Amino acid sequence: MNAASIAALSRAGVAVEVVAQTGSTNADLLARASTLAAPLLLIAEHQSAGRGRAGRSWLSSPEGSLTFSLAWRFDGGPQALLGLPLAVGVALADTLGTLGQQVQLKWPNDVLKDGDKLAGILIETQSAPGGGTWCVIGIGLNLLMPDEMEAQLGRSAAGMPWLARMDRDALMAALLDGLAGCLREFTARGFAAFSARWNLRHAWQGETVVLLDGGVVRHEGRAAGVDDSGRLLLDTDEGRITVMAGDVSLRVKA
Known about the structure:
Layout: H1 3-9, E1 15-22, H2 25-32, E2 40-47, E3 65-74, H3 84-98, E4 104-106, E5 110-113, E6 116-127, E7 133-142, H4 147-153, H5 161-164, H6 168-189, H7 195-200, E8 208-213, E9 216-226, E10 232-236, E11 239-243, E12 249-252
Parallel strand pairs: 1-2
Antiparallel strand pairs: 2-3, 3-7, 4-5, 5-6, 6-7, 8-9, 8-12, 9-10, 10-11
């Protein structure tokens, strides 16, 4: 991929850097956050130590994946960022939809295709010098899912072979435009501007699910979407409850 080409194809006005290989684009941008003056997109052709939520590793391949992080500064503290991972999921889904690929969303930070994981989102934050918060939004997107990678994962995962044939610079520019538009809208209106769109793509709407914390079932109920703060709505035998995103895992009940 070519940084100048991506920046020229994009309408976002965001600086772009491409590196052949790194451990983690999120870690790299977090290390640079105190010196950044404007948003920056960092793309790695290969990422050797990619991370998912709760410290999980993210496996990728140069040919079959896109791995990138976007650093974006927000005014205010972490409370102003409630629902941001879900808003980013909406942005990815909307962009992929314009490219002819329909996907679903799983609370709190996964993009699914045909029930299998297609993309993951990891957002990390750091206080900005002079106030505000730098957010580093890391995304891993599968394009091809070879059998050997599925074997490493130990579960099925989704790919998008049609997008793998698309010009990578044009694809990255489209994703950047969708993300930048999302972040500007989120700054102005918060997650309430995205909740209806998220619920329309909710993969497990009406399904009976369990919430696991450290492998222990904490809640069970029928998934009823999310509210305007990004909290999961769960209809239990005791009534409706709301769940904030934390170190929990959501599963369809077997």
